[in-house]
Amino acid sequence: MLLDPHASQAYEMPWCALTEIGGNAMYENCSIPTFELCVQEVIAGNRGFCIPNPRWQAPRRPVTPQQAEDIAGQAVAVCGPTPERRTVFFS
Q1: Coil, strand or helix: which one is 39?
Q2: Full-prediction pTM beyond 0.70?
Q3: pLDDT the model gives residue 73
């Protein structure tokens, strides 16, 4: 049995296209890497919208031994702007 937590994210990408499949039912496709491709997926004849994937986590960069020493020797504060979130509705 495979218990790797990253295995479940093998096909998860940053964007989800939610498309209406009839009877007020929606189909969720969260294997889309960019917002632009998500929009193309949604406007390809289906009604729906794009949202950021709430389950997606960006891959972590491996830390080299030298980087680990540098980080351990100093206080690090990471600050930055909030990531942009876009939602587009099509009908």
Answers
A1: helix
A2: no
A3: 67
Share of the chain above pLDDT 70, in %: 64
For residues 43-53, give the mean pLDDT.
85
The position carrying tokens 């093998």 is 10
Collect all residues with Cβ–Cβ distance below 8 Å to 80 and sequence separation of at least 6.
none
Q: Which of 37, 66, 78 is nearest to 17 (CA)?
A: 37
Beta strands (DSSP E) in the chain are 15-22, 25-32, 48-52, 88-90
Is the pLDDT reported for residue 16 higher than 50? Answer: yes
CA distances from 64 to 48, 67, 71, 75 (A): 43, 5, 11, 18
**In this structure, how many other beta carbons lie within 10 angstroms of the beta carbon of residue 88?**
13
Nearest alpha carbon to residue 29 among 19, 37, 40, 21:
19
Determine the residue type at 11: Y
